[in-house]
Amino acid sequence: MAPSGHAPVTLEGDLVTPQGCLQGRLEIEHGRIVALAGEPIDPARAGEGGRPILLPGFVDTHVHGGGGRDTMEGGDAIQAIARRHARHGTTALLATTMTAPVEQIEQALRAIGPVCRERGTQAARVVGVHLEGPYINPDRLGAQPAHAALATLGEVLRLHALAPIKVLTLAPEVPGHLALIGPLREAGIRVQVGHSNGSYDDGVAALRAGAAGFTHLFNAMSALHHREPGMVGAALAHAQHAELIPDLLHVHAGAIRAALRCIPGLFCVTDSTAAAGMPDGEYRLGEHRVQKCLGGVRLPDGTLAGSALTMDRALRNLVQRLGLPLHEAARRVSTVAAQYLGLADRGRLAPGAWADVVVMDAGLQLRRVFVEGEEIDVVADA
Fold this sequence. Notes:
By secondary structure, the chain is of the alpha/beta class. The chain contains 9 helices and 21 strands. The protein has 2 domains: about 10-55 and about 350-375, Urease, subunit C, domain 1, CATH 2.30.40.10; about 55-340, Metal-dependent hydrolases (TIM Barrel), CATH 3.20.20.
């Protein structure tokens, strides 16, 4: 176990809690929140007079890389990625794979497994794996390499034994996939519909079979048309949960607003690549080489290929570009995803929860980050 903060720490400021905003203080001991107290304030007044804003640490269920490293590298890449994202306020994440031959996925999971069991210093907690591929539709690869494959329960459970798969992206219209959703759910794996060319009816059938949500809503799935609603229509009409990438490149602000009105448990992810937290240039994404330029990450043909987004930027986009109230934006980058993953002691500022805390100023710039009580060296991102 990585060193947690054992010395008592008291943080004062405006606290964003599940019950609303409080002006007061929060106390940390042995890596946990042991007490908080304060007077209720209007969330719109958070940060007034230079008071720090305390939010629950960000929870990201879709992380391919960061700091120049890619999850498919194996080795020490996962620790490096977890450290980079912690410096931007992410306190818990799912290491996310790319579509690849199964031998390469196994290699990546062998490296991820030990990191899930023991958090490194100055790093976010890696709570498991998001297996994004290879069980996708080859006609909806997006930026995934062309190694789509049919899923079998035995193969998934063998991978699950190497590192805990918390989320699995699957195209339900592929023959045999719909029948796997129930057994995967029973194994504790949340199935998300994604990289799918299925119809509206395919999406509804997947939800009825036990699918938990949708992977990067709107992207790499059949689109909404008023006579052919597609996977997007199934999600907007019926889903309780879905991921969304709020970099304002993957999804237009108007579509984000529509999704927020339709899907109660919509939560934000970065879909970040090795380019996250790095300057413009060329980076790895699975077997691809991608280019970061003008805030986006693309394949040579111009296809968006993951993102360079970090969760502190995601929060600012929600508040400053989309106009969400701060406490609502905090739910979408933290609390909802933690609840979705069944992490009752993360994603909230409450007694007994892990001391995963982000401290920001009134401009929502990072000032301090704590992961399980350990203070992290932060990165200011203008």
